[in-house]
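#struct-pred
JK: can someone run the complex with 4-fluoro-L-phenylalanine? inputs below
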Amino acid sequence: MEHTNKTGFSTKLGVIMAAAGSAVGLGNIWKFPYVAGENGGGAFLIVYLLCVLLFGLPLLTTELLIGKRSGRSVYGAFRALRGNSRWQWLSWWCIASAFIIMGFYFVVTGWCGNYLYEAVLNTYTGMDAAQLTAHFSDVVSSTPRMILCGLVPVLMTAAVLWFDVNKGIERMSKLLMPLLLIMMVVMAVRALMLPGSGEGLRFLFRFDFGRITPQVVMMAVGQCFFSLSVGTGALITYGAYMPKQQSEARTALQVALLDTLVAVLAGVVIFPAVFSFGYDPAEGPQLVFVVLPSILQQMSFSWLSGVLFFLLLFIAALTSTISLMEIAVASLCEASHDRLNRHQSVLIVTAITTVLVILCVLSPRLFSWSDRLVTTILMPLGALSMSLFVGWFMPRLHPALTFALRWIVPAAILLIFLNGLGVL
Ligand code: PFF
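RT: done, structure tokens with the ligand placed:
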């Protein structure tokens, strides 16, 4: 059955693609490898996979359910379901998180745009590991260039929301998502053929339980939420556009599977190359931007491979920024009781985002602080609150889900959180 609405998702597949588009992005290809690299590789991966099963799946279901049952934006969802505004703070919490993510996420999307441009011009061809590392520092230390790179995707995202072209995005994602997967499989094969690649695989897949520390667990939980887009209401927003007969649990499962596949695949591309080219796995946020050009140069059709890969990565990032900006735009329309129309809301949200992106470019400290704040505090606590909200206040759920949301998920997040902060 067709279900149309103001943002124009029309089919079940449309919602799945939009949710998958939100989930699959820089979190998988940029953040997962560098956070795994900083937190012990295999130890991190095993905890991450457990987190996806234990928290990710129930919470993805929860967000979609809140959206679908309320039919509202993040701003109105909790108050509509409770009939009062006692949980209104959670709406603001989510909207604030979305803005803070946008600040640094657009900066990294800008890095991708820059590398796409350089792939077209063949700029990094012939550079070795040390030169690529130096090149990255040069790129990010040019403030005007970074502001430009960050603001181009802001304007592109705003244009998508302004012209309401989600149907186009939906169709494009159906083509691009499989293309991204194929491209990554090809790159993984190339990476595995590099001399010394086995060490990278061992780093990623050797489950050394002794290296699981409270810090590793906390980072894995945060990364799981960030990667699945859980805890800021992106999926509440999309859940509101879901056809009534669509199962939120099944949609959640499909999104989680695809998202996890892309993250693990990114690890299989990056770590063999890290060890083969002599990089440090704990290199930090620049990791993939120095390692990927090293691999791409070695591939057949290297120019085409580079352009295609960075183009796909840039678009994967855009489908995530679209969902982030939509949280704020839909909320602003509803909060103003439709006195602001969509276009006005897009303008206001774009203006605020522009300021945040410029601030993140100007201050590397703000950049890494926002990233940390969101992953270790805002998203886990947002998710914990949503879990309690749905567990205690929403009727007609599967009893096992109710039990998990009331007790298990909140207790586990809280324990991990306090443990990671060293309070316990
Ligand atoms: N899940 C996205 C990624 O992995 O790149 C990032 C993200 C999008 C986080 C939307 C939160 C969100 F609401």
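RT: quick notes.
Residues 147 and 358 are 6 Å apart (CA to CA).
Residues 12-420 form a domain with the Amino acid/polyamine transporter I fold (CATH 1.20.1740.10).
JK: thanks, will look after standup
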